[in-house]
Design goal:
18% of the residues lie in helices and 50% in strands. It has a seven-stranded mixed sheet, with helices on one face. The longest helix has 17 residues. The two termini are 20 Å apart. It has one helix and seven strands. It is an alpha+beta fold. The protein has one domain. It is globular, with a radius of gyration of 12 Å.
């Protein structure tokens, strides 16, 4: 985590970063990532063991007209991981 970044929990299923993005758990099979004009929904699965959630970085859909490239997807999945680590949850990204 960037040492200047902080997180808050505005509701039970939302993690908000001081850097302007939010991660929202929509259900057992999806996470919504929002940043400025960008909104992406990622497919997820519940897991067991140390990793409680698996996020599939190549299985997402844009909820607006933005189509991010692979570098942006990597940055976003890193942000999602950091948000979940704030909650004490290790996620797997495949």
């Amino acid at each position: 985590m960037n040492e200047n970044e902080s997180f808050s929990i505005p509701s039970v299923n939302v993690i908000q970063s001081s850097f302007g993005y939010t991660v929202e758990i929509l259900g057992r099979h999806s996470i919504l990532y929002k940043e400025d004009e960008l909104s992406l929904e990622f497919y997820t699965e519940l897991a067991t063991g140390e990793t409680l959630l698996i996020l599939y970085k190549d299985h997402w859909k844009s909820l607006n007209t933005h189509q991010p490239d692979k570098d942006v997807i990597q940055r976003i999945t890193d942000n999602i991981r950091e948000a979940f680590l704030f909650r004490g949850i290790e996620i797997g990204i495949v």
